[in-house]
Amino acid sequence: MIAFIMDQLRCSFVKHLSQLTEKQAELMRKKLPQKRPINGVDHIILVASGKGGVGKSTTAGKLIKIYINVYCIVNLATALKCVAPNKDVGLLDADVFGPSIPLMMNLHETPLINNDNLMVPLINYGVKCMSMGNLITDQSAAIWRGLMVMGAIDKLIRGVSWNHTDYLIVDTPPGTGDTHLSLAQNLPISGDEIILGVLIVTTGQKAALGVTRRGITMFKKLKIPILGIVQNMSTMKCSKCSHENFIFGDSVQELAIQEKIDTLFSIPLDPNITNGCDSGQPIVITHPESSQVKIYKSLAEYLINSLGNVTNK
Predict the structure, then answer these.
(1) What single string gives the DSSP state of each residue in 283-310?
(2) Could you cite one Gene Ontology molecular function of this protein (predicted)?
(3) Which helix (H) or strand (E) holds 199?
(4) Residue 65: which H helix or E strand, with range?
(5) Residue 128 three-state SS
(6) CA 27, CA 32: separation in Å to the nearest integer?
(7) pLDDT one-digit tens code per residue, 202-243
(8) How far apart are CA 232 and CA 176, in angstroms?
(9) 133-183 pLDDT per residue, tens
(10) SS3 (DSSP) at 25
(11) Most exposed: 3, 169, 276, 297, by fewest CB within 10 Å?
(12) Which domains can be identified in the chain, with CATH numbers?
């Protein structure tokens, strides 16, 4: 009896959906954000990972828990500025629930408002930065749902004076949630003004790779070009004999081959990277001649060339 009732309800629901009028469909489409360029921004690079704790933010800008995601972004941003000193580089922290860019870039002030009622990005190491962490106190918690998240992201994107920014690097939270969809729905993927691409950061653990694969699938469905994969914490060097130990084997290389993503950068697990970000001094600044920084700079140069190739297409 219960099964019969459920079948009836299912049929009724399907019939209701099929009767959706064109006017209702148009109203629903109007609810979606419009793709608009960001005034003053030429190129956008999303840095994403399916799984938290893989070092994404470090590549963009700590080894324990959530900070490991930010290391990649902070160092990438500063490396971009080093290899292209005449270009303006911006860093947007789109992780509204766990912002960590202020710590890693040593920026704890509240941004000023200019005459156009736009927030002025804070600057350190030549990189323009904006984060929800600069708008709320350390003790505050952003307890928001979908529409509020979308509103916050839009404010960080278009409520900021990003004028004359050649490369805007966006640190996204782990997973494939509202933030990623909001960014994909708001930003033009290609055109004369903005080229958007995504850099995938992951580690070689099985749990991380499974979620990373789903993230890659999401960006492919959204038709956002994948610029490459970064394997974070790929090796660890012995402090006594300098022997390099490969922590997770070659599982990330296998993922790159399966997903037909050619470019792979491997960044070692190194105390200088984590300690530098914890103190607000990226390793690109403190150890500019180190082998780790050479990897970040190579990654920066590769991204510049990749975005140029996307533009030419």
Answers:
(1) HHHH-TTSHHHHHHHHHHHHHHHHHHHH
(2) metal ion binding
(3) strand 195-202
(4) none
(5) strand
(6) 9
(7) 887 777 888 888 888 888 888 888 898 888 877 677 667 776
(8) 19
(9) 888 766 555 555 556 667 777 888 889 999 899 999 988 876 666 677 777
(10) helix
(11) 3
(12) 44-309 (3.40.50.300)
